[in-house]
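task queued by scheduler; priority normal; single chain, no ligands, no partner chains; default sampling; output format set to structure tokens
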Amino acid sequence: MRHLHPRTTRRRVVGAFAAGLLCAAGLAAPALAAPPAGPAAPTLGDGLALTPPMGFNNWNSTHCRADFNESMIKGIADIFVEKGLKDAGYQYVNLDDCWALPNRDANGRLVPDPVRFPNGIKAVADYVHSKGLKLGIYTSAGTKTCNSAGFPGALGHEYSDAQQFADWGVDYLKYDNCNNQGVDAKLRYTTMRDALRATGRPIVYSICEWGQNKPWEWAADVGHLWRTTGDISDNWGSMLGILKKNLPLAPYAGPGHWNDPDMLEVGNGGMTDTEYRTHFSMWSIMSAPLLIGSDLRKATPATFDILDNKEVVAVDQDPLGKQGTVVSSEGGRWVVAKEMKDGSRTVALFNESDSAQHIATTAAAVGLPEAPAYTLRDLWQHRGYNTAGTISATVPAHGTVLVRVFADRAWALHPPAVETGLDGSPLIEAGTPAALTTVVTDLGRTPALLVSAGLTGPDGWTVRATSPAHALVLPTGRSLRTKWSVTAPPETPTGSYALTLRASYRSPTGARVDSAVPLTVSVVVPPPAGTSSLGDLPWLSATNGYGPVERNTSNGESKAGDGHPITLGGVVYAKGLGVHADSDVEFYTGTACTTLTADVGVDDEKGAKGTVAFEVWADGTKVASTGVLTNAMPAQPLTADVTGAQVVRLVVTDGGDGNDSDHADWADARLTC
């Protein structure tokens, strides 16, 4: 993953290996800068970052390209004010790598690139400050930064660089981890903490150590936030993997010391708006820093709608400062709850899977006191409902329903919450009628009146109700179940198609409520009889930790089709799947198949790197697994009994140590039907 990130040339020379290289070359690791004479720097508790920092960082949208320059930074500051993002809480406009020249001046000082920043950094800071905003800057806790051009890092220059930043008017420092020469991480980051404090200027200190040395365990009195993972990429697999690593770290977060799962990708184009809303919702419920990573000069209205959702931002910025915790996560159906300062709970119903899912919890389960009823406010719909205690929704694939729930004497003023969902398999064979059932359920303490349900599909599809689609009244907990016959035209290509489930009802006060839930069904074809190569069969869905899943080649790098011949232990395979952990590939088997076989392992293209584990799942049951495999191991034969399964999933996890270089192969993968 990180080795393929656009910062492909990051030289993360760490630990004893790096120290050994230095000794072998007759070199010594650079000494950390000595502090100036005077009293020891105080510990944190400086009143900074009492809520997670919000702002912008250019890296995800520009990397080191020429469009990262003074004009861009000033333009972002202007947009913060013009578009209301400043009013929403965004305040830091941060420069990432590539702002400096590769060499220091004769006095050892950093030199801003005169092409990118012709007026220098102080002039940019002055402009940003004139807008009522703050400026951030970047360097690395090493001899050089992460870019291949070799920009100077701060190792051995901590005090002079920190003073230079302070003199420029910098308000925020991102301190990376590249080229660190094996010097102890805690020592490196503590030295810069002391250097920043010695300047006397309040500077938020962001530790970008990638979580390698578990900074959450030691950095609460070192920095205001610390990265918990490697770099994020603009795809679902990357965002999901980082989310899962950051969620368990909730006990370590709080005012002035935050877990940082990396910058936002919202608006960069690699995910859908549904996925970006999930990204923003989950970062907010995790009390993560909200640093916009897209070029707002090119942003769509949908991007601004996500970033400027003040009700969601308020979740992130709640002054109690608690990170949300996992209530349940079975089958990729996540419930995450966050305690708020006013006693309410924000609850995320997050659907990791590739099809709509019913996700439910209760007011009691998320920590609310017993009450006759509760007010439930949907933070994306911006509408309030009442609930008898159930917190439930049918959540679209990769979607998140984000609600704030509280005991409220005025609950009856709101209409009852109603969940709409679908029963039945979302897999449809073209030309064959499929039986689906829609369900409309009253979750409120008050009845839903004059309830109706409707289901529509793509043009040319036949969608027909075969049972009543109306009810005069639905009491608390009761459902309107409507059966439907859905037929896709015989020549419909395989793939995913949208259905829309609509429900309408009235509250006892006469208020009308209309809702629409997007649903996804897949048109599938039965697998051919006999034995087939999985590399040649259509899949239902495929997620990958980096780059796309590749057919009959290795994962390669980030672009489609850039893999190499699948090679395990020097043996080359003509067929199979090349993936990158964390990966999940689903195939429709239609209850007609019996056996899946493959040779599995870490592809040779990453040398000695990579640790992975392989799993085969049949309709939600794990039927085969390998345990952790490394590149040093030969290909492992894997056989799974998938008899009677409708769907088979091929899963690769990261082996428990992060997914850097985890290129995995399902070599010669075959399915017998």
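post-processing summary
- The first helix runs from residue 15 to 24.
- Confidence is low (pLDDT under 50) at residues 1-29, 36-43.
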